[in-house]
Amino acid sequence: TWKWVVGPMFLYLCERLVRFWRSQQKVVITKVVIHPFKTIELQMMKKGFKMEVGQYVFVKCPAVSKLEWHPFTLTSAPEEDYFSIHVRIVGDWTEGLFNACGCDKQEFQEAWKLPKIAVDGPFGTASEDVFSYETVMLVGAGIGVTPFASVLKSVWYKYCHDATNLKLKKIYFYWLCRDTHAFEWFADLLQSLEAQMQERNNAEFLSYNIYLTGWDESQATHFVVHHEEEKDVITGLKQKTLYGRPNWENEFKTIAGQHPGSRIGVFLCGPEGLADTLNKQSISNSEADPRGVHFIFNKENF
Q: Which PANTHER family does the annotation name (predicted)?
């Protein structure tokens, strides 16, 4: 038995030593942004830190807990001179981080008062392959939308600086959530991208659909009254919010018809049930002919 135990234990100890070494590297919090509905954005810098789109890191705050590490998706783009995470305050550890950063105080906080942060990573995910396709479908459910903040920011930077060498030509983005207010920071990002794409006369580059899966009767009445307004009453975007869940079979067939003979990347960050549905649709809507349309499914679950 010991022969089978020693190998894994040695690898585990090596991993713990590497994490301890990384935790001693200096991380500087350059900015703390408070978003609505108790969501904070930490912008940080670390010497030698290199990331790709959609990756994640483990974060430890000794002022809150000396042992706990928590995973967070990076919401910044590789082209930016910092890396960032968005933290929604939903438990004891996140509440402690919120208070340690001085977000519970009204006055301006000096940088030297911010807590020490340890960062381990970044670690790769399936979203890194998004630039390998000409056409992609990005599907985020709830908090699963965070990897696509990094993707969409990076796409915009690449598009602005060297659009001719950008292989990616079309993005279909789907966001399924019970309450968009919890992620208003992401709606702000979409508003910015929407405005910038219209300025460059390429609004068709990004096609997005937001599906609200939970609402009550009073909200439904409010939506109906303001449906004719130019911008959506929930997100402030020109694209109106849809209610319920998407008909995935129709969505796949429509996209397949618009891009015949293409390899289309399907990227999901969401629950396992949705992953099964998208995987089945990717298989059933791919043609047997190698020259036909093919959907390549990539996922990360939470």
A: CYTOCHROME B-245 HEAVY CHAIN (PTHR11972:SF60), NADPH OXIDASE (PTHR11972)
